[in-house]
């Protein structure tokens, strides 16, 4: 039960976002009934928008626009089609779709049957995919046609194609055929609400399943307390919808009535064009997308003026080097950097003023979120002292689907990272627990070195890893993607001029590009395997 001060803050935040608004008594009664029957997940959230604002645009993708009423009817028909194929309440349905209407419709339809949603990473390699499917055992899969070959060996009989390129797709049911063949009137609500399982990034091994509760008002209020999103905005979600950050804005759309502007793949020039042509007020990205935009030729960047863009919400990894200030110098002070993880959701938000002050900061915890820095014995440490980051909020996950979980201390969950608060309460994330390198008795976090290298004008991006060393136990090796000619000695001198001597990489290798997964995280194990 929220306290009165919490309730007052929530009401203020929701009113500022335009969520609190008057409705005629009959519509309000239908809205309350819809949410009571269907919950606040994809089934009820989008059904409520069909009641509140049936004629507003819900989804815009390469195939056009769907209103909330159209999305509602199509999802009803798809749910009946899935039921005819044998999907039942309590089943698990895997979704392997890129960002398009099919992802949205499939999510709503599966939830309306009371079945669970398992979101698959569209960049999975065959072995990763096989491991996840063997562990999670979904009874059906909805996937884009392009992933048919990747799923060929999966022992799943019920399959539905999402996006198809040809007018005559391969034999078998598709989202479009099921929608066309089935009744689109309202269904009977299931006895249970759908559970959503989002997979971890898998940068260190097989991705784990992290189940989530239905999206609630407190979770939305927390994010909106630090990020000025508004009701009815047109939001371009460029981050993958299957990822925690993309899904967060999919869930927020249920409350904010956002128009979701989607594109199946990311291209930096197309991204800017989409923001301009679709008149988007907000964009949802991962940092590497901003890097790719700013790497465009100057004449191309100069062609895009984005006066309507109010919020660029970035998460998934840290903003490297001076990326934050370079973006804001070009497109205005609209960048918000969110720190969190699949397990703890969002822990802190850096607003534009925070990033102007210190581009490396992760910002401050939002409303109803507690962040503590603890030592290895679980005791709080003072500002300026590095320790383990623990988070408490409404969105902590329930434990991995394969068993196990994250360490919890006094109700706060480990994020798996280390960092510190400064004297003004700004959070700084220094790196993963398992990224720390002990070299010659000194602790080194790669991220600080990576940021330093990235600030050199000749460096496009950098990554650092620890490798075995017979004399020091471990030593630092950096990998650099250069935008201009630069030598290893020049970069070492740059690091030495800005950081302690023991943080200077013993070796710097130049490569064409850093290996990344679909959510933009650098795959450091692949760098280590290059020896």
Describe the 3D structure:
Helices cover 32% and strands 23% of the residues. With 531 residues, the protein is α/β, with parallel strands linked by helices. The chain has three domains: 27-194, Rossmann fold; 222-433, ANL, N-terminal domain (Rossmann fold, 3-Layer(aba) Sandwich), CATH 3.40.50.12780; 437-528, GMP Synthetase, Chain A, domain 3 (2-Layer Sandwich). The relative contact order is 0.09.
Describe, in short, the structure shown:
The protein is an alpha/beta fold. The chain has 17 helices and 24 strands.
Tell me about the largest β-sheet: 8 strands, mixed
If you consult CATH, what is the topology of the largest domain?
Rossmann fold
CATH-defined architecture of the largest domain: 3-Layer(aba) Sandwich
User: Radius of gyration, Cα only, in angstroms?
Assistant: 23 Å
Helix content: 25-40%
The shape is globular
Strands ordered across the widest β-sheet: 2-1-10-9-11-12-13-14
What's the pLDDT, averaged over the residues?
A: 90
Uncertain runs: none
CATH class of the largest domain: Alpha Beta
**Share of β-strand residues:** 15-25%
Distance between the termini: 56 Å
Total number of helical segments? Answer: 17
**What number of domains?**
3
Please count the beta strands (DSSP E, at least 2 residues each): 24
CATH superfamily of the largest domain: ANL, N-terminal domain
Layout of helices and strands:
Layout: H1 4-16, H2 25-38, H3 42-52, E1 57-61, E2 64-67, H4 68-84, E3 92-96, H5 101-112, E4 116-119, H6 126-136, E5 140-143, E6 158-161, H7 175-181, E7 196-199, E8 209-212, H8 217-224, E9 234-237, H9 244-256, E10 259-261, H10 268-277, E11 282-285, H11 287-294, H12 298-302, E12 311-314, H13 323-331, E13 335-341, E14 345-350, H14 352-357, E15 370-374, E16 387-392, E17 408-409, E18 412-421, E19 427-432, E20 437-439, E21 442-444, H15 446-454, E22 459-469, E23 473-482, H16 488-498, E24 507-510, H17 524-528
Parallel strand pairs: 1-10, 3-4, 3-5, 4-7, 5-6, 9-10, 9-11, 11-12, 12-13, 23-24
Antiparallel strand pairs: 1-2, 7-8, 13-14, 15-16, 16-18, 17-18, 18-19, 20-21, 22-23
């Amino acid at each position: 039960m929220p306290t009165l001060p919490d309730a007052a803050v929530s009401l203020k935040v929701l009113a500022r976002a335009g969520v609190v608004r008057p409705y005629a008594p009959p519509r309000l009664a239908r809205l309350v009934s819809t949410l009571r029957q269907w919950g606040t997940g994809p089934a009820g959230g989008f059904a409520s928008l069909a009641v509140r604002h049936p004629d507003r645009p819900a989804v815009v993708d390469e195939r056009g626009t769907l209103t909330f009423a159209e999305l509602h009817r199509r999802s009803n028909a798809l749910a009946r089609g899935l039921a005819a194929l044998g999907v039942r309440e309590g089943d698990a349905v895997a979704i392997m779709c890129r960002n398009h209407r099919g992802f949205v419709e499939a999510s709503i339809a599966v939830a309306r049957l009371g079945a669970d949603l398992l979101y698959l990473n569209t960049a999975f390699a065959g072995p990763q995919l096989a491991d996840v499917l063997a562990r999670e055992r979904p009874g059906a899969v909805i996937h884009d046609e392009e992933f048919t070959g990747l799923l060929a060996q999966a022992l799943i009989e019920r399959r539905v194609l999402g996006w198809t390129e040809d007018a005559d797709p391969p034999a078998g049911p598709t989202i479009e055929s099921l929608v066309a063949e089935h009744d689109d009137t309202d269904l009977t609500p299931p006895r249970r609400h759908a559970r959503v399982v989002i997979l971890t990034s898998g940068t260190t091994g097989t991705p784990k399943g992290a189940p989530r509760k239905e999206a609630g008002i407190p979770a939305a209020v927390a994010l909106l307390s630090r990020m000025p999103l508004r009701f009815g905005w047109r939001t371009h979600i460029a981050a993958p919808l299957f990822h925690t950050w993309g899904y967060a804005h999919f869930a927020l759309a249920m409350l904010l009535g956002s128009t979701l502007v989607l594109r199946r793949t990311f291209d930096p020039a197309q991204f800017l064009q989409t923001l301009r042509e679709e008149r988007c007020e907000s964009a949802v990205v991962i940092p590497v997308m901003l890097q790719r935009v700013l790497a465009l030729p100057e004449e191309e960047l100069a062609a895009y003026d984005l006066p309507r863009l109010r919020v660029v919400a970035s998460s998934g990894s840290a903003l490297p080097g001076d990326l934050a200030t370079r973006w804001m110098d070009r497109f205005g002070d609209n960048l918000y950097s969110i720190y969190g993880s699949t397990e703890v959701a969002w822990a802190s938000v850096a607003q534009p003023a925070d990033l102007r002050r210190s581009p490396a900061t992760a910002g401050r915890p939002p409303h109803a979120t507690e962040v503590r820095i603890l030592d290895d014995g679980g005791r709080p440490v003072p500002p300026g002292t590095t320790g383990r980051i623990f988070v408490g909020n409404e969105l902590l996950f329930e434990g991995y689907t394969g068993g196990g979980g994250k360490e919890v201390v006094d109700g706060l969950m480990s994020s798996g990272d280390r960092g510190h608060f400064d004297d003004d309460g700004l959070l700084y994330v220094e790196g993963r627990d398992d990224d720390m390198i002990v070299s010659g008795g000194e602790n080194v976090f790669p991220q600080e070195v990576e940021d330093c290298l990235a600030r050199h004008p000749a460096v496009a991006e950098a990554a650092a890893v620890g490798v075995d060393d017979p004399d020091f136990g471990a030593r630092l090796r950096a990998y650099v993607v250069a935008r201009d000619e630069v030598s290893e000695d020049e970069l070492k001198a740059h690091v030495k001029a800005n950081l302690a001597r023991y943080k200077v990489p013993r070796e710097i290798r130049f490569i064409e590009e850093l290996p990344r997964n679909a959510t933009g995280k650098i795959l450091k194990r692949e760098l280590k395997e290059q020896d």
